[in-house]
Structure formats: C-alpha cells, structure tokens
Automatic annotation (TrEMBL):
Protein name stated in the entry: Dihydroneopterin triphosphate diphosphatase
Binding-site residues for substrate, renumbered to this chain: 5, 27, 38, 79-82, 133
Any one GO biological process: AMP biosynthetic process
Segments forming a coiled coil: none
PANTHER family: BIS(5'-NUCLEOSYL)-TETRAPHOSPHATASE [ASYMMETRICAL], DIADENOSINE 5,5-P1,P4-TETRAPHOSPHATE PYROPHOSPHOHYDROLASE MUTT
Amino-acid positions noted as binding Mg(2+) in the UniProt annotation, renumbered to this chain: 54, 58, 115
Gene3D superfamilies in alphabetical order: Nucleoside Triphosphate Pyrophosphohydrolase
C-alpha cells in the first residue's frame, strides 16, 4: 500500500539578521526550483515540531540544541499543489495547507544538505525572485516586518 504525503505542511524561511540574506535550497527532483525549508506534517505532529524536524533534516540546524528562536508567523495559507508534485499525494488531493515560520540566525551558515542539490544565501529581493512558489515569495518578502516583530518579542 502506497503511503501518501499529508497535505498539511510547514514553510520555514531561514535568514541572517546581520546580512538580511535568505537561505535558499535547490530541489533534487526539480533543479530549477529554489525554495526555503518545507515539509509535510507527520501523524500527530504539531506544525512547530514539523518545522524543527524539517530544518534539521534539510539543513542540519538543530534549533533546540542551539537554543535558536523559531518564530511562528501564525499565518496559514492553502494553495494548489504544483502538478509535478501531486503524485506524492492521494489522487483526490490538490490543495495543501501550509504553516509559516521564520528562523533568524546571527550568521550565515553552511548547511548540511541531505535533500537538496545546492544552497545559496541571497538578498530578500533575489530570494523572492528565484523561487517559483508564490507563497514562498510572499513569506520571504515579509522578513522585514517579521524581524521587527521578533526583535520586540524575543528580548
């Protein structure tokens, strides 16, 4: 029996507070597709737990181990799954529900890639322009407002 992906996921935009550059990852299954960290929620897993797990799996960043502040944007969207990725979901599934998070870092890091071909640190504008995902582009474009919020509330 084929196990399909859960159509509920997280998007985690990782950025450097000092340089205001965004970590972008190149997909293995579609090298023209650059994105932030994403991943489907597992059974009985919260969005926050999914974000922590996916960041570790995709970049090697241990949010809890390094005492980093993961910011829950409290923003959830629904979007149509790209046709080239629908085979991973049950045949009737065409919509995914996505929870947004931000992970501000003090310095740019070299990620440990396991699920991607390559990475680059890009300006907010260039990161938003390189992704073909409209929701990823929108989330990246909101970093400036998220950063102000996070700095006020994490002190």
């Amino acid at each position: 029996m084929q196990k399909y992906k859960n159509p509920e996921s997280v998007l985690v935009v990782i950025y450097c507070k000092r340089t205001l550059r965004v970590l972008m990852l190149q997909r293995k299954d579609d090298p023209n597709f650059w994105q932030s960290v994403t991943g489907s929620m597992e059974d009985n897993e919260s969005p926050t737990d999914t974000a922590i797990r996916e960041v570790f799996e995709e970049t090697g960043i241990d949010i809890n181990g390094k005492n980093l502040k993961l910011i829950d944007a409290k923003h959830v969207i629904e979007f149509e799954i790209f046709p080239q990725f629908r085979y991973r979901y049950a045949p009737e599934v065409k919509i995914n529900k996505e929870h947004w998070f931000y992970l501000p870092l003090n310095d740019e890091i070299i990620p440990v890639l396991s699920e991607h071909l390559s990475y680059q640190w890009l300006t907010i504008k260039n990161a938003a322009n390189i992704t073909i995902s409209p929701n990823n582009c929108e989330a990246i474009s909101k970093i400036d407002s998220i950063d102000e919020f996070s700095l006020r509330n994490l002190k």
